[in-house]
Design goal:
binds molybdenum atom, Sulfite Oxidase, Chain A, domain 2, binds the ligand Nc1nc2c(c(=O)[nH]1)N[C@H]1C(S)=C(S)[C@@H](COP(=O)(O)O)O[C@H]1N2
């Protein structure tokens, strides 16, 4: 499959939206029943900026979203409706129920937001989202998304390759893995208040350097052509489409280049159930359930919509080479 990435140094591409881009975006908004709701033209702006916040990133992001380009590798499977993508969520900082993230994030403030870059790189420090977003053109990518709990979706994310971002920090040769952290703020995340959860915060995830640099690994800033809602990990979340959903960490505030594989949240909680790699694999079952099939959303009790799960979530051709020498049963 062809993976085409836009040259990040192309000047001012976000100021021009071609007619074809516009119509192709309209095509999938329409397919998803978005037209006529008045949502296609005006992108959603998450919770208002705190008084006095000076960040201009939301304006920058709107301009980039309007100029985003369709990625040629998108799956043409039927999209999971926006309604399901934004109300059936896992985001334990907001609670463990599937509707807790939507219910408990209505006042979530995303502005101001800083991302700390640390560890084995020449260019480290604290960055604004404008700094993070500035040189990157956005792509609309429809990916399959498979949770380890055996449900799945097809989602039109908007983002840019994580690798393009990481390169800008000039990682050194001792950068073997990348470690990510989600925001810790008990005022904004109710489950982080004392005694409310068994997870020790922050939520941590990690990738091997070659996985992080792989062109399919996406830094996500939007969904369905609009900025992310808090329940989907605003303002910035990862999407690694060949891995179980828990690798795709939300609301990122720290990225660190490290030498050793980071201890991830789910490994800490249940090491025999959740591994570091977490590649989607129908041949390796979770100890408490089969991974051979998945419920494709939307579904219902009467129509569970089971479909077979594919190795590497259907991205085998693109990513299998990363694991040539590895026993995937041992490194699950
Ligand atoms: N910080 C954080 N990131 C997270 C989670 C979480 O609880 N906290 N849940 C993960 C899991 S288990 C899944 S399946 C996906 C769900 O993403 P979605 O709600 O946007 O579909 O987010 C992942 N990222
Ligand atoms: Mo998940």
């Amino acid at each position: 499959m062809l993976i085409r990435t836009k040259n990040a140094s192309d000047p001012k591409s976000f100021e021009i939206t071609s007619e074809t881009d516009y119509w192709s975006r309209r095509r999938w908004l329409k397919a998803a029943g978005f037209m006529g709701l008045g949502l296609a033209a005006s992108a959603h702006v998450p919770a208002l900026a705190k008084a006095g916040a000076s960040d201009q990133w939301q304006t920058m992001l709107q301009r980039k979203l309007a100029a985003s380009e369709d990625w040629p590798g998108s799956t043409d499977e039927k999209l999971t409706p926006y309604e399901d993508v934004t109300t059936y969520n896992n985001f334990y900082e907001f609670g463990t129920g599937k509707d807790d993230p939507e219910q408990n994030s209505k006042d979530f403030q995303v502005d101001p937001w800083r991302v700390e870059i640390a560890g084995a790189a020449r260019n480290t420090g604290r960055f604004t989202l404008e700094d993070i977003f500035r040189p990157h053109a956005l792509e609309d990518r429809v990916y399959r998304f498979r949770c380890v709990e055996a449900w799945s979706m097809v989602v039109p994310w908007v983002g840019f390759p994580l690798g393009e971002l990481l390169k800008r920090f000039e990682p050194t040769s001792s950068a073997r893995y990348v470690r990510f952290e989600t925001l810790v703020d008990p005022e904004r995340f109710p489950a982080q208040r004392l005694g409310r959860s068994t997870i020790s915060w922050p939520y941590v995830e990690g990738l091997r350097m070659d996985e992080a640099m792989h062109p399919l690994t996406l830094m996500v800033v939007g969904v369905y052509g609009k900025t992310l809602l808090p329940q989907n990990g605003a303002p910035l979340r990862l999407m690694v489409p060949w891995k179980y959903g828990f690798k795709s960490i939300k609301s990122i505030v720290k990225i660190e280049f490290v030498e050793q594989p980071p201890k991830t949240t789910w490994q800490q909680l249940a090491p025999s159930e959740y591994g570091f790699y977490a590649n989607v694999n129908p041949e390796v079952d979770h100890p408490r359930w089969s991974q051979a099939r998945e419920r494709r959303l939307p579904n219902s009790f009467w129509d569970p919509n089971w479909i077979p799960t594919r190795k590497f979530n259907g991205y085998e051709e693109q990513v299998a080479a990363l694991y040539n020498d590895m026993n995937l049963e041992k490194y699950y």
